[in-house]
Amino acid sequence: MASRLGGIKRRDNFNGKETFRVQCPNCKKHKAVMGYAPTGNTYVLTCPVDGCTLNGVVLHDLIKRCGGTQMFDAWRKARWTSTYAEDWLPIKSKGKQMP
Ligand SMILES: [Zn+2]
User: Fold this and answer.
1) How many angstroms separate the alpha carbon of residue 39 from the centre of ligand 1?
2) Which of 6, 30, 32, 58 is most buried (CB neighbours < 10 A)?
3) Does the pLDDT value for residue 83 go beyond 50?
């Protein structure tokens, strides 16, 4: 998901986990940050752009909203078979455009 959004792996940490600079699927600016959420065992996308509504959207919802059901299924299957953090990153959805 991060790479689909043009994600860039960053060296600095967010709650001790790696974060990714990604293109916000809402405002299309490369200012959103995807980081590990300490509470939900998931990732949260936060966009600091003024007026952007994507602030603290969990990956689960983000994929459902922006990735379509196909990508959501692929992500879900990948998640069950391997470690969460390593598996969702390589998922690349080709052929499906953002709404
Ligand atoms: Zn945004």
Assistant:
1) 23
2) 32
3) no
